[in-house]
What we know:
This protein is mostly helical.
Amino acid sequence: QKDPDYLKLWLDSFVSSYEQFLDVDFEKLPTRVDDVPPGISLLPDNILQVLRLQLLQCVQKMSDGLEEQQQALSLLLVKFFIILCRNLANVEEIGMCSYINHVITMTTLYIQQLKSKTKEKEVADQTPIEEFVRHALAFCESLYDPYRNWRHRIAGRFLSTVEKSRQKYKPASLTVEFVPFFYQCFQESEHLKESLKCCLLHLFGAIVAGGQRNALQAVSPATMEVLMRVLADCDNWDDRNPEEVSRKAELTLKCLTEVVHILLTSSSDQRQVETSTILENYFKLLNSDHSALPNPRRCRQWESRFIALQIQMLTMLDCTDRPVLQAIFLNSNCFEHLIRLLQNCKVFQGHLDCLAVSTIQALTAVMHKSPAAKEVFKERIGYAHIYEVLKSLGQPSRELLEELMNMAVEGDHMAVGILGISNVQPLLLLIQWLPELESHDLQIFISNWLRRICCINRQSRATCVNANMVIRIIETLNSHSALHCACAENLIALLGSLGSQSMGSEELLQLIRLLRTEEPKRAHPYVVPVMQAILAMARKQGMASALQYFNLYHSMAGIAVPSIHKWPGSAFSFNAWLCLDQDQVDPSMTTKSGKRKQLY
């Protein structure tokens, strides 16, 4: 306390001994070290009080400007606290002291100073100040995310609930200074380095991932305003490094995803912001005005940004409370926003096929395993409308068509035989689109896949028949001049298979009309394959089966019996044959125990 030089010497020695714990780069996973820094009880007496006074003196001298020696001491102090917090038993006590508030005060002033220097275009070396800021933010992370949950998350490693429950030490309580600090840092943020903005976003993500109590305190209207502003700012590329701007947008989206997942696990009285409010602002960004973007180069940047927005939506929906989040998405009119985005993208020159692909992925994610969401989409948007929108973008790529196939099976379209039809509407859309495809290879590829997926079992055939697929196939075959012969043969074979399941009089009439030609003496090219299909319908294949039956495929399906007082006589009996088709495998259930159907 009486000898500052000796104190600095001692701090230097301590920091040098434990330098491996100074992992201030948020992008790197923490290094595993066998040794741990000492507990507070093993430090010299009154050392924490002495360091608090030293830090307070640095804060008080900030307004006049710190000398080089004092700058070095303040950085040394912050390094000391980071190291101390890497012994997780010390985190709570360090967090209860006033160090963090002093460090935040100094960091705020330094960041303001960095902005001013940039604004005034001063070229002086700011490295010492930036180094302090980075270490100060790492110190905050050590307090509020001691197990580095956020670093694991951005590295693609998700901790299970069991793993989190094993985390013995809790993060320190979040200081009330954080939200004003975070908000102020992003005022006039165009004068702040992108890398420092990324560090600030990393810190916010760390606080949210570190623990629910701190997360709910940090997620406020002010911090959400900052995140939305950062995303909106990604339109203004100027002369900044596009990679840095993209990384900033990506981090912001990951922060928003973490926020949404935390809000879903909290009660309404704990939340300062509702999930629906965040999503509404999120969708407003999707459809903000982009006509002001001047040069063609920005078209690709604009597209990339919104692909990122939509892909992040997919990860946002990947949570334990998915049905709840799906309902919130629906109430936020997400379908309308996504379709409007596709319509807006037509104002740009060039083919924005990647954007269409990511939009279909987003729509699939929102409707995944939700009959209600599928009905809402059908009523509000309609597949006829999305077909017109997609068609207006020009010739589709194979990737876009495959994404529609994925939407139909709600998984990988190549897993035919494992996945059945979950949404028949995209299949109807693909059949309708076939004559418009200029690529014969794509026509053959799509029609061949449709033939396989639609005829895989009785359930698939029944689904397609009930969706009036036979009529849609006949309508497509009417455009025979635009269809490759192999594509037409696949469609007719599919029609034969569906017809063996069920064929109405109107459908049969349309099929016969298909074979009419302008020249009476000239046979239609489809005569032979259509006759073969009709013979296939009439031919018995396999075991005899009922033509009329109850479909009890869905988990809640059943046969309702009248209440007892309506039974004729004193008893009631019901007789039926039962046909058990092989169930489609749900990949998400493979790790869980298999399900068993019961008859009772």
